[in-house]
Amino acid sequence: MVSDSRMLKKTPLLAAAVAAAVCSTSALAVDFHGYLRSGIGATSGGGDQACFQAAGAPAKYRLGNECETYAEIGLGAELYNENARTFYLDSMIAYKSNQANDWEAALGDSADDGNPYDNSVASVRQFNVQAKNFLDALPGATLWAGKRYYKRHDVHINDYYYWDVSGPGAGIEDIDLGFGKLALAWTRNTDGTWVYDGAGTGTNVANDTVDIRLGDLKVNTDGALELGFDYGKANLNEVQRDDPGFDDQKGYLVTVEHTQGNWFGGFNKLALQYASDGMIGTGHNNSAAGDGDMFRLVDQGVVQLGDRVEMMYVGIYEDKDLDAGNGQTWTSFGVRPVYKWNDIMSTAVELGYDRVEPQGDGDDADLVKLTLAQQWSAGNSFWARPQVRAFATYARWDGDVYNAASESIEMGEDDGLTFGVQVEAWW
Amino acid sequence: MKMTTRLPAACLGLLLALAGPAQAGQTQNPLEAEAICCDNLAGLPFQALPAGGHLKFRIGADAPRFLFPEGVSPFAAFRLPETDRTLELSLRSLAGDDLFQPRVMLLDAAMRPTRAFGSEAFPYQPARGFVPDALSGRIQIRSRYPGAQDNERYLIVYTTPEQRQGETRLVHPAKTFARAHGNEPPNIPDPIVAHGETGTLELKIDAEGGFALGQTLLQPLLGAGQREDVVAALPQPAVDAVAPGPVEAALPETEVYYRNAIDEALGSGDLDRALKLAEEARRVGAEGARRHLLQQLKAGLDG
Fold it and tell me: Which of A194, A367, B211, B285 is the most buried (most CB within 10 A)?
């Protein structure tokens, strides 16, 4: 591996990562993690596959309703292990394209100018080191620094991340308090305020989030509670502070989450969140946000309905009440029952409903989506992957406000039918 | 796996066992003793396993049983290929509705036990990619040159009463998903599978270094990953080197095996079996077994 260090500087990152994976199998064990979704689809009536999302809704139900290729390649390795002190290096490269062509160059230009040959993007989303047992006074605790997916909480069936402070950061996690575990972190997100043209400073605004979590609180049989407090603040520099065009916006997000195991053969997760001003959202401060507050409820789970049926469900209610009157409420319900024919084949149905109601004047937007998919996977668990699925999706919405995410759906239409084949894998 | 009693010895063993169930009562459960297939290791129904072979088999309630030193256990027995390359064996016991925690005994060409691998050699590997939750491990088969008497040629997969008391805690698939995604795993209890007498297993035998580059890269996905870890996890006490000396030299564990087996036979009042064991032990160079039998008999007379 030592001889590789020169090569690493010259070759593209992906190639270097692959080379590292190959070379290292003899030297040190590399953990290869990753995710993939890709496939092909079309819209009834002609054109590329359309994907259906209610206007203003932060998420959409994903089965048979994903139009892009997205992949993550994660490589990690334990670099040091002496007396239970370990240093672990983790990395992840993400890739996304419109799955429109064989050749889709990743030029790093986020503005999709419509050229189908250079529409993809790639990003190093994780590169960090985690030092476990770094301090004798904190047995079991881990000190970490670098870019990291930090304790993200999501809903799988609509790909919605309701608590996610990921980014460059540093922190200490797994501090054992006896009755629970404490984690402290400082993470960064940067606003695109460079477009602010009042004073034309052209500067970005760095935002800080201080994240405090107290988790693993055993409150009932197979049940655990996690409490989270996130304080976010725009970290303005001197020029920005002197410029009235920039806001010193800040806020906080409080999360209370209860996880119940052995819940009808699966589990249930209930999260309640309250946020103010800049932290209205999912964990990052927005320096240009208006004042107001937000309440959100997310309840989700997977249950076993008999020997052959497993189902995931979710209910979301989010109320953004902004002083400027431009908030909204979002209500979402979805279920995905899966019937298992045998160890590798299953049939899934996904029914999802989203409704967005503006706080002020304006039309409500709603959308209902129904997907039927025949699935082949390695194993029959709800979570078994890789999975290849052939699907047909029908969606119906309030026509005036729906923004078609595709050239295949015209403005004014109020329903659509798509079909295709998709693979999803994680490892 | 449906173990048909192809070998006459196995049939004979079964008949003998059926003929004398009353003898077995003292130390063994009569039901267990009743099902014992064979008299000695050489009589086990060995199934040929070709190099490069990949076998998925089931040890079911109808599997043959044998009185191992640790106790009666259902088993599957295989004859390994003769080759001049070092063979590598991958054993995976799949966690499903049941789970068979394996113990593996290797025998040389003369049917002498060479090495045994306990549960430490087959640690739990969480489900990943195409591979379900399993207890899995890899073993290098020792082979000096084709035809050498002390080449490891036979493999027996069984379990012990002690192992059957145990259980394996699996990683909940929702947590596996979360970790692969870099998400916070849900704080929920993991499923637990009790170890039993039945289970589904996979056995793969390959020449060492037989993996192509692509396979090496995809090892985690294909389930053959963390090879270094597994080999490192082999229990040192259980792995005694085969002395590359004369064939006549019996290994200490061979001695121990025969002594234990003789004790078992005596304990169940089966003097005939004990004598047969002593004779067999002498043939393979385990001289101490005969002495041990005589001592035990003498002690019995004195007492």
Answer: A367
DSSP annotation of A120 reads: B
Single-letter residue type at B43: G
Rounded to two decimals, the pTM is 0.76
Q: Is B100 part of a structural domain of the chain?
A: yes
Nearest CA in chain B to A218: B187
Domain count for chain B, please give it: 2
Please state, in angstroms and rounded to a whole number, the distance separating the CA atoms of residues B76 and B58.
9
Torsion sign, CA atoms B215, B220, B226, B231: negative
| Encoded tokens for A381 | 């668990």
Domain match, B270 and B128 both: no
Q: Is the peptide bond before A386 cis (omega within 30 degrees of 0)?
A: yes
Do B186 and B46 belong together in one domain?
A: yes
Q: Tell me which chain B residue has its CA closest to the CA of residue A91.
A: B182
Residue B120 in domain: yes
Residue B208 is given by DSSP the state T
Which chain B residues are closer than 8 Å to A381 by Cβ?
Answer: 173
Question: Tokens representing B103?
Answer: 């113990």
Cβ–Cβ below 8 Å for B229 and A29: yes
Q: Which two tokens stand for residue B213?
A: 């580059």
Half-sphere exposure for B55 (CA within 13 Å, toward CB)? 21
Are B130 and B255 members of one domain? no
Which helix (H) or strand (E) segment holds residue B255: the answer is: helix B252-267
Q: What CA–CA distances, in Å, run from A165 to A117, B100, B183, B303? A: 33, 43, 11, 77
Q: pLDDT in tens for each of the 303 residues of chain B?
A: 433 333 333 333 333 333 333 333 344 454 444 568 888 888 889 998 887 778 899 999 889 999 988 889 999 999 988 877 778 899 999 998 899 999 999 999 888 888 899 989 999 998 877 788 999 999 988 887 777 888 889 999 999 999 999 999 999 989 988 988 889 999 999 999 999 999 999 999 887 655 445 545 555 555 443 333 333 333 333 333 343 334 455 777 788 888 888 888 888 878 788 888 888 887 777 778 878 888 887 776 654
